[in-house]
Here is the input.
Amino acid sequence: MKTIRNVALMLALAAGATSLAQAQTQAQAQPAASYHGQSLTRAEVRADLALWKRAGLERFWRGEASPDIYSREYRVAYAEYVRLRSGPEYQAEVQRQNAAGR
Here is the structure.
């Protein structure tokens, strides 16, 4: 009885590991755009960059070193970026970028 339980446990673990490996392989094989669901337009990328700069995140990325993402100043700026990016400001900026691109 104990042997059967051990074999069943080993089979379950092996099946889980196999399905995990397959899922990771499929995720790595997909292009970045489809990984996130859709590709972005040029206006959307430019709008995102404009909001990133407007939030003040640009000043933290000077030179070769990575910023201290745990500092209070960075977290405040990042929260502002997330607010802008998820609010109506993003759509307004996309429209502005579309108009500027014509």
Notes: The two ends are 75 Å apart (CA to CA). Residues 29-34 have pLDDT under 50 and may be disordered.
